[in-house]
């Protein structure tokens, strides 16, 4: 069999123009992408406020900078309106959208969450208070890596392909 000289360059080119290879073709992923389009790949939508840190994992990888829309954090889940967006910090203060989180907190504030809760067939994970995010009550969450493939799965926790190495509080968005 003869090797084509153009095969490797074509493969490399396709890997650059198709950045979502390895991400599940799933109704929730598709709804999330459709709701945000490409307008917010490098900046957060109105109403989303950054946390003052970049969340790394003790096991390697990260989640990135959380941009939270406090008006959406309640006991209602909507596939088109994630409560949190994850942005990976890039050099020079730039950011890139990599994922989202759906957060469910039982109202009135402080009641334990009613479990199980799911969104588009995906079960949310139970988070116990106290936690490293400073949320004072138990809550439920679902991570969705819709823009950066996660080798642990599209709905896994931290993403080993995301890094906080470029995070600089003097350059990246602050609350």
Describe the structure.
The protein is of the alpha+beta class. The protein has a domain at 23-144. 12% of the residues lie in helices and 23% in strands. It is built from 2 helices and 9 strands. The chain has helices at residues 7-17, 27-36; strands at residues 49-50, 55-56, 62-68, 84-89, 95-104, 118-119, 122-123, 125-127, 139-144. It is globular. The termini are far apart. 26% of the residues are buried.
Count of runs of 4 or more consecutive helical residues: 2
Low-pLDDT ranges: 6-20
Dominant shape = globular
H-E string: HHEEEEEEEEE
Helix content: 10-25%
Note the gap between the termini: 59 Å
Beta-strand content:
15-25%
Average pLDDT score: 85
For the CA atoms, what is the radius of gyration? 17 Å
Largest sheet: 7 strands, antiparallel
What structural class results from the helix and strand content? alpha+beta
Structure summary, number of beta strands: 9
Quaternary state of this entry equals single chain
Quick recap of the structure?
12% of the residues lie in helices and 23% in strands. It contains 2 helices and 9 strands; from the N terminus they run ααβββββββββ. Residues 6-20 have low confidence and may be disordered.
């Amino acid at each position: 069999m003869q090797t084509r000289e153009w095969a490797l360059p074509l493969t490399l080119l396709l890997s650059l123009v198709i950045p979502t290879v390895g991400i599940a073709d799933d109704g929730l992923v598709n709804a999330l992408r459709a709701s945000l389009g490409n307008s917010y790949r490098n900046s957060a939508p109105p109403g989303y406020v950054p946390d003052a840190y970049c969340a790394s994992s003790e096991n390697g990888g990260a989640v990135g900078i959380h941009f939270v829309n406090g008006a959406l954090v309640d006991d209602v889940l909507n596939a088109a309106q994630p409560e949190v967006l994850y942005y990976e910090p890039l050099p020079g203060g730039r950011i890139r959208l990599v994922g989202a989180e759906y957060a469910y907190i039982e109202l009135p504030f402080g009641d334990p969450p009613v479990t199980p809760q799911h969104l588009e067939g995906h079960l949310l994970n139970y988070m116990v208070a106290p936690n490293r995010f400073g949320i004072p009550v138990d809550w439920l969450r679902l991570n969705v890596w819709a823009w950066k493939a996660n080798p642990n799965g599209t709905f896994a926790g931290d993403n080993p392909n995301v890094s906080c190495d470029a995070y600089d509080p003097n350059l990246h968005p602050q609350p």
